[in-house]
Specification:
By secondary structure, the chain is α+β, with helices and mostly antiparallel strands. The chain has helices at residues 6-21, 25-36, 56-64, 90-96, 100-103, 119-122, 126-135, 168-204, 207-214, 219-229, 234-241, 245-259, 264-272; strands spanning 44-52, 75-83, 109-112, 137-147, 150-160. The protein has a five-stranded antiparallel sheet with strand order 2-1-5-4-3, sandwiched between helices. Helix 1 (6-21) runs parallel beside helix 8, helix 10 (219-229) packs across helix 12 and helix 11 packs across helix 12 (245-259). The N and C termini lie far apart (59 Å).
């Protein structure tokens, strides 16, 4: 196995920095596929995320509590990005890929397809006929991403017919990157789960409560806003709160200013349609 040159180490360091620091996850995956071609020779590539389908919610909650729970990994491929190819083969991958057991194993690994099946056997499979032959691909190299038993994604690199198989040097190089990508994808998954949780919690709250939190309304202003949204007139609100109409008007003007509306019509529209 050859040693990496100094310039290759510099490039890999730059690549790892991009994996960890690129803000948008989809952009990170696209840039990874395109930039990696500078050190690994391939003709096409795809990079899918994995959506877990067995016990994901309970496992994520367990991870947040530091609890390990037994489970069987599973899922399906989705949200692909491509390099020099464009067809989504997720259905074929999930249905007839002879290596899908490895992809969903929950273990991060790098391997050549010819390490799973002898080439003579590979070319006779339905998967090879339906996916490889239409694209004139022959050999492939797989990166499977996982973290603590969670399958997270898979990238596949292809070489056209007539070319040699990938080398173990290629496997070694990609193996040095798989854990960086796995950790990045895991962090993104946790962030998405937390964002979805917060979104659901927000949707459960009455619009007035959401507006009060968003615009830092005082407790009295929130009460006034709630009564206004219930349709009470100023006199009714003032009487209910045992305050003068002038004092009530000061609260209402403060509410308008904080939410950014000019009148009650604008206020109703903002609250009911959640335009805040």
């Amino acid at each position: 196995m050859r040693s990496l040159e100094a310039n290759e180490w510099v490039f890999l360091s730059s690549l790892i920095f991009g994996i960890e620091e690129t803000g948008d996850e989809e952009t990170m995956r696209r840039e990874f596929l395109s930039r990696l071609a500078n050190v690994v020779d391939y003709d096409s590539a795809d990079f899918y995320l994995i959506k877990e389908t067995k016990g994901e919610k309970s496992v994520l909650q367990g991870w947040n509590r530091g609890v390990t729970q037994d489970r069987q990994p599973g899922g399906h491929l989705h949200r692909p990005v491509f390099y020099n190819c464009e067809k989504n083969y997720s259905e074929e991958y999930d249905a007839i890929d002879y290596s899908r057991g490895i992809v969903y194993s929950g273990k991060a690994v790098v391997y050549r397809d010819t390490d799973v099946l002898e080439d003579e056997e590979r070319v006779r499979t339905e998967y090879f006929r339906r996916v490889y032959e239409p694209n004139r691909w022959h050999y492939s190299l797989q990166m499977v991403f996982a973290y603590e038993g969670h399958p997270l994604g898979a990238a596949t690199f292809y070489r056209l017919q007539g070319r040699e198989d990938f080398s173990y040097d290629d496997v070694f190089l990609l193996d040095s990157l798989k854990d960086h990508i796995s950790l990045r994808l895991w962090r993104d998954r946790l962030a998405e789960a937390e964002a979805e949780k917060q979104k659901k919690e927000t949707e459960k709250k009455p619009p007035v409560s959401v507006a009060a939190e968003r615009y830092r309304l005082t407790a009295r202003e929130e009460t006034v806003l709630r009564l206004m949204m219930d349709g009470l007139e100023n006199g009714e609100i003032a009487e209910k709160l045992s305050i003068s109409v002038n004092t009530l008007k000061k609260h209402i003007l403060s509410i308008y200013r904080k939410i950014g509306v000019r009148d009650r019509i604008g206020l109703f529209k903002a609250i009911r349609e959640k335009e805040f």
